[in-house]
Amino acid sequence: MDQTERHAPATASLLVVAGVLWLAGLYLRIPILVAPALAPFIADELVLSQALTGALTAVPVLMLAIGAMPGSLAISRFGPRNTLALALFIAALGSAARGLAPDTTTLLATSAFMGFGIAMMQPALPALLTRWLQPHHLAIGSAVYMNGMLMGEFIGAGITLPFIMPIFDDSWRQTVAAWSVPAIGVIALLYLPIRERHRPAKRPAWIPDWRNPLTLKLGLLLGASGSMFFGVNAYLGNLLDQRGELARLDDALFWFNLAQVAASLVMLVMARRWVGRKHLLIAVVGLSLMFLLGCILTNGWVSIAFAVAMSFTAGIQLILLVALPPLLAVTGDAGRLSAGNFTIGYTLSFLVPMLGGWFADMSGDTRFALATILTYGLLVLPVAWTLKLSRQSASPEAPDEPLKPTPDAKR
Asked: Distance between CA atoms of 395 and 125, rounded to whole angstroms?
């Protein structure tokens, strides 16, 4: 038995950590992904264009980029657990406030405030993994909270219309506010007595290392994954409406977001074997783009099936990318590497779908929005070939250490 195994946490402790991480992961997406489901009702009341309808999802995504570095700063000052608790409170408050918005400007402002809180959560979770878990549990830890995140996408977008909205008399305002209440319970659970096993000896740096090639490359690839998922979620209603298939929106969103849950379940099993395998990442990115093209070129249930398949592969791609910083960064640097990735990735996840929305408005054809996202994905696909997945050294003089399978990966 090696040193790591002798000091590994007990199974009961791991289950507690996994449960808290999973619940926190839910709120990385629930507040954002209720917007596409409710978008037709919000647009009707507030008279929104296609671009503004897309902005209900895109503005919080932009804040995921803007808030990543403040999140990294908060981690260096207050620690990842306190940062995560504060971020959850901001996200819940902003989400609830959207239900009170009297006009479009206020709705977008409260959505931005909510997105800022979620943005601070994004680097806090990878940083918390390195505090709460042993190195050979990092990949599965990432898969656990990402499963929670993708389950949040399914819960937020997939069950809002058929199950939650009828409870609140079909009021989109009450529905969007109701999703915020459980976040308070998650904040309380963060302060369960969980031992921090790898507290840094000194305050970690918080500004992303922009000279590190991984910061840019992982960010560009995250932008492709985010653009595909958020873009299709934002414009699927408009696409089906254009084709005279709006009645299929409920089912389409249900299966589209359930596919992400399926992807996360696959990664719960395969994370230790798949994370860090470059050729698998390349294949998944390529498949996502192929399925998006199929969604654009076909109609009816075939088009929806392509969208669902794209959601599945984009979900695997996302987890493969997000799980890398805790594995590759030196101790204490996972938060700032993740912050850099998220700053770049979510800036692009905002800009690319918004640009597509403008093209759709100008042309009168929603397919141009998805074609814009496809074009971006094709442009960044070669970046995946240039990735060097090696563990970062603590000093410039020490050579990088190749990313090797963990002991669990051999079982």
From this structure: 25
Q: Which of 15, 177, 191, 13 is nearest to 86 (CA)?
A: 191
CA dist., res. 124 & res. 81, Å (int): 7
Determine the Cα–Cα distance for residues 213 and 66; give it in Å rounded to an integer.
Answer: 20
Contact yes or no for 134/9 (Cβ under 8 A): yes
- Write the pLDDT tens digit of every residue in 298-324: 999 999 999 999 999 999 999 999 888
Length, in residues, of the chain = 411
Do 120 and 206 form a contact (C-beta atoms < 8 A)?
no
Fold assignment, 11-196+205-410: Growth Hormone; Chain: A; (1.20.1250)
Q: Compute the half-sphere exposure of residue 259: CA atoms within 13 Å on the CB side of its CA.
A: 23
Residue pair 318/225 in contact by the 8 Å Cβ criterion: yes
By three-state DSSP, how is residue 245 classified?
coil
DSSP 378-403: HHHHHHHHT---EEPPSSTTSPPEE-
Instruction: State pLDDT tens for residues 51-96.
Output: 787 778 778 877 888 888 899 899 888 989 999 999 999 999 999 9
HSE-up (13 A, CA, CB side) for residue 237? 22
Residue located via tokens 């959207």: 98
**In which band, very low, low, confident or very high, does the pLDDT at 211 lie, cut at 50, 70 and 90?**
confident
3-state secondary structure 138-154: HHHHHHHHHHHHHHHHH
**Domain ranges, ordered by start, for the chain:** 11-196+205-410
Given 3-state DSSP classes, what are the helix, strand and coil percentages for the chain, each rounded to the nearest 5? 80, 0, 20
- Which among 75, 156, 162, 171 has a CA at the least distance from the CA of 114? 156
Residue with tokens 């409406």: 241
How far apart CA 92 and CA 76 sit, in angstroms, is: 23
Beta-carbon contacts of 324 under 8 Å, excluding residues fewer than 6 positions away, are 214, 218, 275, 276, 389
Q: What residue has token string 């800036």?
A: 347
Contacts 24+ apart (CB under 8 A), 212-216: 212/337, 212/340, 212/392, 213/386, 213/388, 214/324, 214/328, 214/337, 214/341, 214/387, 214/388, 214/392, 215/337, 215/340, 215/341, 215/344, 216/344
d(Cα 139, Cα 158) in Å, to the nearest integer? 27
Q: What is the DSSP string of 38-65?
A: HHHHHHHHHT--HHHHHHHHHHHHHHHH
For the chain, report the end-to-end CA distance as a whole number of angstroms: 15
How many CB atoms neighbour CB 294 within 10 A?
A: 16
